[in-house]
Amino acid sequence: MNERKALHTLLAKNQADLPPRKMRDSYIEVILPLGSQPEIREKYLNANNTVRFGRILEDLDSLGVLICYTHTKHEAVQRSPLSIVTALVDKIGLWKKVIYPDCDIKFTGNVSWVGRTSMEVKMHMLQLQNGVYCPVLDATFVMVARDPENKRPAFVNPLIPEGPEEEKIFKEGELNKIRRTDFSKASLLKMAPTAEERTIVHDMFLNTLDSRTVSFRSRVLPPNSMWMEDAKLKGLEICHPQERNIFNRIFGGFLMRKAYELGWATACSYGSSRPYVVAVDDIMFQKPVEIGSLLFFSSQVCYTEDNFIQVRVHSEVYHSNTRQHHTTNVFHFTFTSENQIPKIIPKTYGESMLYLDGKRHFDSATKAPTA
């Protein structure tokens, strides 16, 4: 980090000082040779003889950073003065249920929208089957550029779309930013539920009242249902140097993998069968995680619909010297189960807000995957 301090002189004072880039300038293709190099399969293999999705999350996070460094690369400079970090995972939509461990995977991606200090990256994953690469998933990440010491925002090269197709993609990036802002403003932590959402909560409440008593406190669980308080799991990670990034913080892809695996285990125990991930939605990286941190994960089934299970994973660091907890991330995963699943039922007002928040993320995530 001391070496990086000297790179401050290379930072642009204004975005206009940086040369514009085109989408093709940051385009990258990477092959993960699971089929042609069997020795690397072990790292990606799960007990069901398919690919571990948590490993794919790690690879997407690394690729997103690499794409952004390619977009901002200055040929005359050997080391980039920028610290590029993941701000959020906007959405990952999956086209296929199973990722095979013995077929090559191809990742492609490029910068699709640029603000002053942030970049949206669109990535696609394909898998080789019968000689043809078939789509597996599409992902949209937002990365931010910061100064060499990762303390303040830094300007990035503007992006110039070429032709109607790229202009459409760029416009989608603008609309995504507006949608995220609107979603945040309407958060149930800030605003009351809508009239329709209040009706949903009240109907569930009435459906759990004991008809034999005239009491708001006597609650009965409906058939084929489960109380929300009984559908959670917890986990702990001690953050070792092995998982650090180049800025001496814990790698964001590692956090995503650990959160996903706990979320998967929660959906598995809830549905009593193997769940399949359908979408990842709205992962916000709120605070960096330092080496040596005690990292607590809390996973909760917060919404169900048909055979879909919406899981929310909350992560926080515990500082032993101050005895304080600080939220670092909130993750949202949508799974589907092959078996019939119980309906999740909130009991308290706080759980009802979790339920409505889960419904909002489910509705957002299960729209057609972004292309």
TrEMBL record:
GO terms for cellular component: mitochondrion. It comes from the Eukaryota. GO terms for molecular function: carboxylic ester hydrolase activity; fatty acyl-CoA hydrolase activity. It comes from Eublepharis macularius. The gene is ACOT9. Belongs to the acyl coenzyme A hydrolase family. Keywords: Hydrolase, Mitochondrion, Repeat, Serine esterase, Transit peptide. This is Acyl-coenzyme A thioesterase 9, mitochondrial isoform X3. It is found in: Mitochondrion. PANTHER family: ACYL-COA THIOESTERASE, ACYL-COENZYME A THIOESTERASE 9, MITOCHONDRIAL. One of its GO terms (biological process) is acyl-CoA metabolic process. Residues 26-149, 229-341 form the HotDog ACOT-type domain. CDD domains: BFIT_BACH.
